[in-house]
Amino acid sequence: MFGLTKEKKVMVSLTRTEYRLAWDALMALRKKQQAEGRYTDAIDELLLKLQH
């Protein structure tokens, strides 16, 4: 298939503080996107991945 590239998966280890910073930043971005009437699908996916 032309134009499709395989996504590279990356695992990162986060401290509690780093996890909380990432979560809060994504939630703030999600709220901003919602307020602007924009899609939040990509942010939602990241939040789900961050939980696991």
In short:
By secondary structure, the chain is mostly helical.
Description:
This protein has 52 residues and is mostly helical. The protein is 60% helix and 0% strand. The protein is built from two helices and no strands. It has helices spanning 16-35, 41-51. α1 (16-35) runs antiparallel to α2. The longest helix is centred in the middle third of the chain and has 20 residues, at 16-35.
Shape descriptor reads flat
Question: Percent of residues in helical segments?
Answer: 55-70%
The mean pLDDT is 90
Strand content: under 5%
**Class by SSE composition:** mainly alpha
Distance between the termini: 31 Å
Described by its quaternary structure, the protein is single chain
Number of helical segments with 4 or more residues: 2
Order of helices and strands: HH
What's the main sheet like?
Answer: none
Which runs of at least 5 residues are low in confidence (pLDDT < 50)? none
Radius of gyration: 14 Å
Number of separate strands: 0
How do the helices and strands line up, and which of them pair or pack?
Layout lengths: L15 H20 L5 H11 L1
Helix pairs in contact: 1-2
Attribute tags:
mainly alpha, about 60% helix, about 50 residues
